[in-house]
């Protein structure tokens, strides 16, 4: 449709014909308007509708959030269980040993392994949390089994002194530890022999004490083998053996209390040097004696004694 304008000179309306510039402006105006309108439609569509990729990312984010929430709930539950187990463990320890349990947690806790969490993505954090939860579950399970075992062990015992739990030599230092349970070099034959106990080095005449309440079931005196020896039966299938003694201060069938003096260190029998050969048996089988010194040793002393005992390759008998 043509446009008209009033011509003052001719005093009439004449047709307004566009020049090249005018036509170009009109075309550019249409193009720009179309572009702006397309952009507007795209923005509106993007705000209202999601693409397939966006839908996938949203679902993945919701799934990760749910996993994270589940992991957090599980962590909270496990923390509560651990707190209960710690309370039970403390109560059992105090009932047995009449003292507060030692703090085995390292005070110099290093949180460096968690520093990288700031730079991890959501999925990596979820995986890390799930892995830590699994580790804690294993620890809780192991701690629960140990507590149940301890509880069952003490069901029939009158008190903690009924099982071997102290050093059988008075005033023994950790560095007086010799070879323990296992295959060791015999001091005389220089062959590998099974060593069923632990060698505790001590001076002649040092007092030997009963490691638990019990009854003396056997006494032997000899210049061969284990030399002068005492065997004591304890509650729960435990038995302790004290060999290479000097003077024996108890008699057969005598009841003894934990800590009472039963003999003195000697060098009788086939012994390389004055010491006490000490054995702990459970249900007829020899077990590691170091594990039954817990009432006398601090955790660091226990680790040191166990390392010395295991790494000593030659016995004294």
UniProtKB/TrEMBL annotation:
Residues 54-88 form a coiled coil. It holds the Pfam family Peptidase_M23. Residues 194-289 form the M23ase beta-sheet core domain. The chain crosses the membrane at residues 27-49. InterPro entries: Cell_wall_metabolism_enzyme, Dup_hybrid_motif, M23ase_b-sheet_dom. GO terms for molecular function: metalloendopeptidase activity. The keyword tRNA-binding does not apply. Keywords: Coiled coil, Membrane, Signal, Transmembrane, Transmembrane helix. This is M23ase beta-sheet core domain-containing protein. It comes from bioreactor metagenome.
């Amino acid at each position: 449709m043509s446009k008209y304008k009033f011509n003052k000179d001719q005093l009439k309306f004449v047709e307004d014909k566009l020049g090249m510039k005018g036509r170009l402006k009109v075309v550019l105006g249409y193009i720009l308007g179309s572009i702006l309108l397309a952009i507007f439609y795209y923005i509106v569509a993007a705000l209202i509708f999601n693409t397939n990729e966006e839908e996938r990312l949203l679902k993945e984010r919701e799934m990760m959030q749910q996993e994270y929430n589940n992991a957090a709930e599980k962590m909270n539950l496990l923390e509560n269980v651990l707190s209960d187990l710690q309370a039970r463990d403390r109560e059992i320890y105090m009932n047995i040993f009449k003292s507060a349990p030692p703090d085995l947690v390292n005070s110099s806790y290093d949180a460096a392994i968690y520093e990288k969490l700031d730079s991890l993505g959501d999925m990596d954090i979820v995986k890390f949390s799930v892995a830590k939860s699994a580790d804690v579950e294993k620890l809780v399970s192991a701690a629960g089994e140990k507590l149940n075992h301890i509880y069952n062990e003490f069901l029939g015992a009158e008190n903690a002194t009924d099982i071997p739990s102290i050093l059988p030599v008075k005033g023994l230092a950790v560095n007086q530890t010799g070879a323990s349970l296992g295959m060791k070099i015999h001091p005389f034959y220089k062959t590998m022999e099974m060593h069923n106990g632990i060698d505790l080095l001590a001076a002649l005449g040092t007092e030997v004490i009963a490691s638990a309440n019990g009854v003396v079931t056997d006494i032997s005196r000899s210049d061969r083998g284990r030399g002068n020896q005492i065997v004591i039966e304890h509650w729960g299938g435990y038995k302790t053996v004290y060999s290479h003694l000097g003077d024996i201060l108890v008699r057969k069938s005598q009841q003894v209390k934990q800590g009472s003096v039963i003999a003195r260190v000697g060098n009788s029998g086939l012994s390389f040097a004055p010491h006490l050969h000490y054995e702990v048996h459970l249900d007829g089988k020899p077990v590691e004696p170091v594990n039954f010194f817990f009432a006398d040793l601090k955790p660091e002393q226990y680790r040191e004694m166990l390392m010395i005992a295991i790494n000593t390759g030659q016995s004294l008998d």
